[in-house]
Amino acid sequence: MAQLNEIRLDQIRLNPVDPGAGSLAVAARPDGEPAAAARRSRRLLAIALPVALWVLFSALAAFSTYLSMLAHHHSLVRLFVFQLICTAPWLAALPAIAVLERRLPLLAPGGRWLPLHLLASVLLGIAHLAWWIAMTIAVRPYDAMSIREFGDPFIGVLREQLPVEMLPYWGILASVLALRFHQRAQERAMRAEQLERELAQAKLAALASQLRPHFLFNALHTVSGLIRGDERESAIATVAAVSDLLRYSLDATSAPEVPLGEELAVLRRYLDIESLRYGERLQIALDVEPAALQAQVPRLLLQPLVENAVRHGVAAMRGEARIELRAAQHQGRLRIELRNSAPPDGGRAAGHGVGLANTRARLGHLYGAAGELATSCAGGWFELTLLLPWRPQATGAA
């Protein structure tokens, strides 16, 4: 193994939120902004789509009429304007139809509002026919062939075209219902996603909470040993370090990921405690790329793993024991290697301890198959390798 670069642990510091707090600032995430942007997009789409369909339908109708009557040399522009004017009432009626359907649901039990919608379609169809004849007289799109009076043509067209004139109402109604069903399906999907996210956070919090009693027991055991040994200053320093670690762990539910540099700061506080227990027996070597300090990792990732190394490696050996930690970017991922001196029996049950199982479960919840943890034991060393997605801390994050 290549020689590791020794790094002084006291160069890694906690950044308190306020003086004396000892906990780390977490950047707030404006979760409301994406939802507001989605609502704005839906409103814009609800306006732009009907207008686009109105213009497209008018253009197609005008062009179809123009092609079918080429011998009459009608003006294509006039036909297009005429179609826009004639179909504009249906565009204007769309919000009213949507409101009417909301207040009088078409799919209400027993179809009790169906007669009212039928009546509305008849009235709007008659109104549109009157508008169409009036605009034909005013615009005269067909030149000499255009209708020149209202009365008789209206009655004749009403008898022939009323069922057809009712169709736009039902088409709009069907579109409103389809859009409403789509929105409700999206809302259900968003609620399901939110519930799934909250469940995952609850599971992560439960997994993190499993680490606290175990660590607290060991820390208090260290403090009690120092007190019995009449090492007052060391006991006070240990209590302060335990306070920092507990404060950090209790805040772990607020942000599942933090920069690796923060995890190393927490690790420093933990190793301060263990150094008091083991003295010069405990040798630490770190080799961390500067860029890796900003890579996002799960909260409380390193401390439990190093605690396992101490408990099953250092504590189980009589002489000097060594813990080595590497962290670097590797093939687009964050690679963390942790290895420690191991007793002849291998220690840590070949990588199946509770702490390692807890870490595997947390990685699975956060990253799925993208988070990997592998262990091996050979040549007097227990080695652990973590592969995580490479996600640097956002610029300007606390």
Structural features, described:
This protein has 2 domains: 33-190, no CATH class; 255-389, Heat Shock Protein 90 (2-Layer Sandwich), CATH 3.30.565.10. Helix 6 packs parallel to helix 7 (302-314). It has 8 helices and 7 strands, in the order H-H-H-H-H-E-H-E-E-H-E-E-H-E-E. The strands form 2 sheets. A 5-stranded mixed beta sheet has the order 2-4-5-7-6, covered by helices on one side. Strand 4 (321-330) and strand 5 (333-341) form a beta hairpin. It has 398 residues and is α+β, with helices and mostly antiparallel strands. The model is unreliable at 1-32 (pLDDT under 50).
The count of β-strands is 7
Structural class: alpha+beta
| Low-confidence sequence ranges | 1-32
Measured distance between first and last alpha carbons: 36 Å
Largest sheet, if any?
A: 5 strands, mixed
> Within the largest sheet, what's the order of strands?
2-4-5-7-6
Strand content: 5-15%
Q: What string, H for helix and E for strand, traces the elements in order? A: HHHHHEHEEHEEHEE
Q: Tell me the count of domains.
A: 2
Globular, elongated, flat, extended or rod-shaped: what is the shape? rod-shaped
Mean pLDDT: 77
Q: What's the helix count?
A: 8
Report helical residue fraction.
55-70%
Using only CA atoms, what is the Rg?
Answer: 37 Å
Short description:
With 398 residues, the chain is α+β, with helices and mostly antiparallel strands. It contains 8 helices and 7 strands; from the N terminus they run αααααβαββαββαββ.
